From TrEMBL:
Name recorded for this polypeptide: ACT domain-containing protein
Ranges for domain DUF2241: 2-71
Cited InterPro entries: ACT-like_dom_sf, DUF2241
Superkingdom to which the source organism belongs: Bacteria
Length: 135
């Protein structure tokens, strides 16, 4: 399956779903990856400065890591193509209008947006509004 590329189809079928739990971003040295895999990161990215991990908040706190503010993850259930154009911009625009910061992670099947935990319900509502036809 290659995923949906048509922007109107993507937006009509976003189906934003709030995942359970809170997540945080942290960074660790690249060479320490094996030490942190038991914390079950749901995302990681290698940068020149270090390895960024997205972890369940409780795991990161228990490990004593310096972490970001708590975030909630909203997964778009539509299988979006990595070649799709405009979906990220539309979602970011909807959240910008609500004054909600967004950290977008595109994976093979779905897009995921990490938003401040306190803004999660408003963010889901803003994203669901993208799927509703204009009245």
């Amino acid at each position: 399956m290659s995923g949906v590329t048509d922007l109107s189809t993507l937006l009509a079928s976003l189906e934003p779903t709030l995942l359970d739990g809170e997540f945080v971003y942290t960074t660790v040295p690249h060479e320490k990856l094996d030490d942190y895999l038991p914390l079950k990161p749901i995302g990681m990215f290698f940068e020149a400065e270090g390895l960024t991990l997205i972890l369940p908040n409780a795991s990161a706190v228990q490990a004593g890591l310096a972490v970001s503010a708590p975030l909630r993850c909203i997964t778009m259930m539509v299988h979006s193509s990595l070649d799709a154009v405009g979906m990220t911009a539309a979602m970011a625009s909807a959240l910008t209008k609500e004054g909600i910061s967004a950290n977008v992670v595109a994976a093979y099947y779905h897009d995921h947006i990490f938003v401040p935990a306190v803004d999660a319900d408003r963010a889901v509502a803003a994203l669901k509004a993208l799927s509703s036809p204009a009245t």
